[in-house]
Model the fold of this input.
Amino acid sequence: MTHHPIQLTEAQSSQFQTEGFLVLERFLPQPLVDRLVERFDPLFATQLETGVYPDEWHGRPGLSQPNATRQMSGLWRCDRTVASLSFAAEIARLNATLAGWTGGRFAMDSCWLKPPDAPAVSFHRNNSYASCIVPSTMITCWIALSDAIASAGTLEVVPGSHRWNCVDQPRFLHAPKDDYRQPLWQAAAEAGIAQPSLVAIELPPGGCVFLHGDLWHGSGHNTTTDKTRRSFAVSTFPAGACFQPPGVGYGYIFSRYRRMGTQEMDESFFPILWTPDGYRSPLAKAYCDDALLAQTPEAIAQA
Ligand SMILES: O=C(O)CCC(=O)C(=O)O
Done:
């Protein structure tokens, strides 16, 4: 059983600075993993608890190839059980603390379901998808919701690549026609790195890895015949983040929720989830519970 809040050690923080990622083998208790996984089938079958559609939706049962990766972003809008994790203060606190920020604001949530034979996900840097935000930086907590093993296409990262002097450009990530690591090889060449080392993040269900927004990562083909690889990712901006002027930078999902006439981020779309003095945006308090505040077995069983 994991107890929140988690106290990160100095060694863990310094590993994150140096390597650009940090693994916690135990983060979510199994009942919470199960509760989250149960929500995905109804969501992909268009049974949306709130009636609201997600921001991104790839892979539909009956319409897409059976082996297509199913991915949704902005799931918190559709389902308040999912939102209770997307808006967990603890995740925002850990993401923000690793980055050295004094507050964390919700940026995005995504689920990634890779059935047997699912194709790879191209290597990329998450910050490239948020250049319409200042500062253009996010930290992501990627949580395994099944056994995340190399043969099932778990996440792969390149230690230290968050410090590489190179650029990435937004691209379609699902089912690349070319080598899914090609963007990585190109970036390594630009940064003058002869042989980048790759690490497959193998985790039990409920384990997580925190990713620096400039860390190169992707995931391989699910080569198994019977294992669906599931994960859920929550990304955080610094609490004081705002928009670039209109037309500057990339970020088509974020920009949808821009208010005209101001560069401020609206707390109804990007709630502040953690600050040291306990402030949370009204939306986060009114919309759902916080899944990581109710960690007794009785509370989880009743939820
Ligand atoms: O889960 C995956 O395979 C990819 C996830 C990813 O790229 C991300 O969360 O940024």
Summary: The domain at 10-302 is CATH 2.60.120.620 (Jelly Rolls). Residues 43 and 285 are 23 Å apart (CA to CA).
